[in-house]
Specification:
Length: 153
């Protein structure tokens, strides 16, 4: 049940309304918070990627743990995208994201869906390296799609 709740929450990535987020966070702090969440994603995805590439021994339970960790923090991102963060110098979010917020949010939701599928699949006892490559591949495609259009280097 807990993993299902995490998975459902991860689907809402970027779709959370930041109605009062600007009342909760200073814009600069929100960007730091956002970047911290993405650092968690990066660390967890690094392990997952290493496993599916064969650089790290495959361990389904460990992969599930890493995907679940991402699912736990993914819903926090919704609080970090509000208009006042637009002009924060340290932000790596391109102006294009603000200009096409619906597409940006749709890509976040696609990523959340792929993350949900990876969490669910990797919890199944029959999850193997072939399934890992397929489901993790979909997750990484979601990362890349957003980074290409909306992340400054």
């Amino acid at each position: 049940m807990f993993k299902k709740a995490i998975a459902i929450a991860s689907i809402s990535l970027f779709s959370s309304t930041a109605v009062q987020a600007n009342d909760l966070f200073d814009a600069e702090d929100a960007v730091k918070y956002r970047q911290a969440v993405y650092q968690i994603f990066s660390a967890q995805a690094g392990v997952i990627g290493g496993m599916v590439k064969g650089d790290i021994p495959f361990d389904a339970a460990e992969l599930n743990k890493r995907a679940t960790n991402m699912g736990k923090v993914a819903p926090m991102l919704g609080d970090t995208y509000f208009p006042a963060t637009r002009d924060v110098e340290e932000s790596r979010l391109k102006e294009a994201a603000w200009e096409n917020m619906k597409d940006f949010q749709a890509k976040g939701q696609s990523f959340g869906k792929a993350l949900n599928e990876l969490i669910t699949a990797s919890a199944d006892p029959s999850f193997d390296i072939k399934a890992a490559r397929q489901t993790a591949g979909a997750l990484f495609k979601g990362c890349k799609a957003c980074h290409q259009d909306y992340r400054a280097k």
